[in-house]
Amino acid sequence: MVDPGKIFVALFSGINVGGNRIVKMAELRSFFEGLGFSDVATYVQSGNAVFRAKKGDAAALANLLEAAFETKWGFHSRIMVRDLSWFEKLVRENPYPEIAADHTKLHAYVLEREPTADEVARLTEKCTGPERFEIKGDVLYLSAPNGLGKSVFAGLIPRTLKVPGTARNWRSVQALLEMAAHAGEK
């Protein structure tokens, strides 16, 4: 039997934001296919792709994608690559299930690495509004009762935590998990 490969999700930072760094999703799908990946699907314009890779782990794939992306589009986008089991764990370990139904109030930040205790302590000091957060490994879960757009704290996360990452609302998290779980089904 031929190994079909493993399903991954790629989350791009800083594309298609405010009319800048435009990347059409059809072009992004073609980009992945041109690199030899299969079962490629994209979700919304903010740069989310599900794909199957026959070889490589998440870190190696992220490096490959970042280099190829910069060569093709002429600008850098940090890309977080995670596999299907990682996404399943992200959803399963959600510390705020009571707000999961309102996707505008729950966000997951996919972080490049697990923050140190000192980094988390600095962030905790800044969390003085109605928001709550919890970090589990390389995921920061943010409960923002007034929505992300009105959250002062959300704007402080990247520069306070200083761990590269990218955020997705809960609807996107669930949609990407669903897409990954069913990748390749026709």
Automatic annotation (TrEMBL):
PANTHER family: BLL4334 PROTEIN, DUF1697 DOMAIN-CONTAINING PROTEIN
A family per Pfam: DUF1697
Gene3D superfamilies named among the record's database cross-references: SP0830-like domains
Protein name: DUF1697 domain-containing protein
Species assigned in the record: Mesorhizobium ciceri
